[in-house]
């Protein structure tokens, strides 16, 4: 599943399974991706501001 040119703000994806998801030219602002799993996923030309990735794999 590919997501294009979306803006994500204050999203709580703590511990979420993001495997095989692709984000293209998206902006992430103040999001929580702590312990999120993104094996097989990709972030192509995305911008991250104030995003938490603690223990994310």
Key traits:
57 residues, 6 strands, 32% strand, single chain, mainly beta
Structure description:
By secondary structure, this protein is mainly beta. The protein has one domain (about 1-50). It is about 0% helix and about 30% strand. The protein has no helices and six strands. The protein has strands spanning about 1-5, 5-10, 20-25, 25-30, 40-45, 45-50. The strands form two sheets. It has a three-stranded parallel sheet, with no helix packed on it. Strands 2-4-6 form a three-stranded parallel sheet, with no helix packed on it. It is globular, with a radius of gyration of 10 Å. The mean pLDDT is about 95.
Summarize the structure.
This protein is globular. With 57 residues, the protein is mainly β. The strands form two sheets. A three-stranded parallel sheet has the order 1-3-5, with no helix packed on it.
User: What is the ordering of alpha helices and beta strands?
Assistant: EEEEEE
Total domain count:
1
Which outline best applies?
globular
Structural class: mainly beta
* N-to-C CA distance: 19 Å
Uncertain stretches of 5 or more adjacent residues: none
**Widest β-sheet, arrangement of strands:** 1-3-5
Compute the number of strand runs: 6
């Amino acid at each position: 599943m590919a997501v294009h040119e979306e803006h994500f703000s204050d999203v709580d994806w703590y511990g979420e399974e993001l495997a095989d998801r692709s984000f293209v030219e998206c902006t992430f602002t103040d999001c929580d991706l702590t312990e999120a799993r993104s094996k097989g996923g990709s972030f192509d030309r995305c911008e991250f501001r104030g995003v938490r990735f603690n223990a994310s794999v």
